[in-house]
Amino acid sequence: MLKQRDLHECHALYNLMTDPAVFPYVRYPCQSYEEYLFITKQLIVEEEQGTCISRTILDEIGHPIGTIDLYHIDHRTGFLATWIGAPYFGKGYNQRAKEAFLAELFLGQEIETIFLKIRTQNIRSKKAVEKLPYVKIANERYEQVYQSINHSQQRYDLYSVERSDFLESSGGIQHGVAT
Q: Which of 42, 68, 93, 152 has its CA 20 to 30 Å from the CA of residue 59?
């Protein structure tokens, strides 16, 4: 379901990312394939430096369908960013990818809290994340973080996943990370 990023999947991912249903919501909205390749190379380097963790989301037959990242890793916290190509909407990939990635982060890394910032108008993402039992709205609980993500014109809701909540709800979840 998840694998470490590499440059071989960039073409397929770029084609999925440029779909108008996806493009406005990706963290790095690249204007060209070359720019996407450059950003992917940067993410691979950042992971080697320990400032982000980035994975490719795969379908059942191993085709790349999106990405999931933990970025701004600091003091055992980080921000989660996920996108999935439009042909894969509504098929459960988002939830399965998040669960596998969170298991990797909480069981294999020293992450304690993961933040998700979702644009207030992104109803699809808000509904998807609110289905997950371990995700909590965090606008008030982490008010400083909430204020820091809402300093521009774009407005976000803040959600959080605590290690203890995830582990309690998952009951020793198994995760699938390809190497």
A: 42
pLDDT per residue as tens digits for the range 97-114: 999 999 999 999 989 999
* 126-134, Cβ contacts within 8 angstroms, sequence gap of 24 or more: 126/157, 128/94, 128/95, 129/159, 131/95, 132/95, 132/98, 132/99, 132/161, 133/169, 134/102, 134/161, 134/162, 134/165, 134/166, 134/168, 134/169, 134/170
Paired with 119 in beta bridges are: 156
* pLDDT for residue 171: 67
Measure CA 101 to chain center.
Answer: 8
CB atoms within 10 A of CB 110: 9
Residue 66 has pLDDT above 70, yes or no: yes
